[in-house]
Amino acid sequence: MADITLSEKFISRVIKQIVLNAKRIVVLCFLVAVFSSVWALTRTARWSAWAAAIVPGSTSSSLSAMAGALGLGDAVGAVSSVGSGILPQPASIDITLATQILGSRRVQERMILEYDLINRYKAISMERATKKFGDRFSVSLSPEGIIFITVEGSTRTEAAAMVNDVIRFANEELSTLVTSRSRRSRIQTEATLAIAYDSLQSSRNAMENFRVRTGLIFPEQQATSMMDVMAAIEGEMVSAGALLSGLSGNLSSRSAIYVQASAQYRYLENALRVRSTVGDSLSIFPVMDSMPSFLREYEALLANVETRTAVYLLIRQELENLRIEEFRDSPTIEVIVPPTPEFLRSYPKRAVMVITHTFIAFVLCIVWLTFLTWFRSVLASPESGPFVRDIMAEFKNQFRLSRQKNGSAKK
């Protein structure tokens, strides 16, 4: 078998075809570049913004490998300066739950409804809008336990606002979904506190009714003052009785001085009897006979009010402690790097698109010329050439016969 020269080799023939069609290839690549640039100019520009967040009290060492399985996007790793020494070392399930909530469908649907993305994406359903938004939204978890949230918007401001809303919606979902023992205790304690407050109000109303009914605002002080008044009346009555007894031996019962002393004594006696039995409407003090029962009723009401007040304050203090405990137990997403918009737009990358499309067109041209060179060599081969020509002729004859039959049928 004779040696094949360089010009007869397959690669040489391919290169020759490329050189012969170089002008056509250049023109085609130029047209592709022009059409690609025009097409890129008609695309709606998008800017991206990202933020870094953590879940206080938790970190992750191997959860970044699970992020892809959860469908939460690619790892970003843009803040490598934040070392793992800042965060605590024990792993926790809170950060996994927070990452899942950030990338959950519910958060995405709330974002779609918030920004009316169904109309903006021209989607026919929520499913299509969710899919398109998922291409513009990603959540990733670094090995240090830092969560990166990236969202694309029509403007830089909107992209940053969307990142903030994603974090806000995720925190709201976490506060709704996470049910810890502290939260259950807090909810039960709130109900108990409401009952204790109603009970305290009823006891205070009973105390108010007692004071309105009896006129005793400060019963103990008022009882002491009443005893002092009655003691003064009794002392005046003793003095008047002594004076009356002295006058009765020297003056007649018709004497003016005797009548005056007798009237004073009877008035004091009546005043003492009234204040001890039925009472006087003009007096600010209640009847002395009813004072012990009033004091006993007041002491019972006071004990009831003080007891219910102590119970209310105790439950309220316990509620505050449970709220603090709930805050410690519930995972919360805290932003450590605020949403930062990118300076350059994320889509479309016009230079990259033009270069990529032009390169693809050039590669397709090379592939096409390689195929033509191979096919021509197959046709020129004495072994396979006649077979391929017969196959092509039979194929053409079938279509030619079908056309002739259709033409005759029309005639």
Task: Characterize the structure shown.
By secondary structure, the protein is of the alpha+beta class. Helix content is 66%, strand content 7%. A four-stranded antiparallel sheet has the order 2-3-1-4. α2 (22-41) runs antiparallel to α13, α4 (93-102) crosses α8 (156-177) and α13 packs across α14.
Annotation keywords:
rod-shaped, 4-stranded antiparallel sheet, single chain, 4 strands, 411 residues, alpha+beta
Rg, alpha carbons? 50 Å
- Name the helix and strand elements from N-terminus to C-terminus, one letter apiece: HHEHHHHHEEHHHHHEHH
| Overall pLDDT level | 78
Counted by DSSP, the helix tally is 14
Structural class: alpha+beta
Global morphology: rod-shaped
Strand content: 5-15%
Query: How are the strands ordered across the major sheet?
Result: 2-3-1-4
**Uncertain spans:** 59-91
How is the biggest beta sheet arranged?
4 strands, antiparallel
What is the strand tally?
4
> How much helix is in the residues?
55-70%
The CA-CA distance between the termini, in Å, is: 60 Å
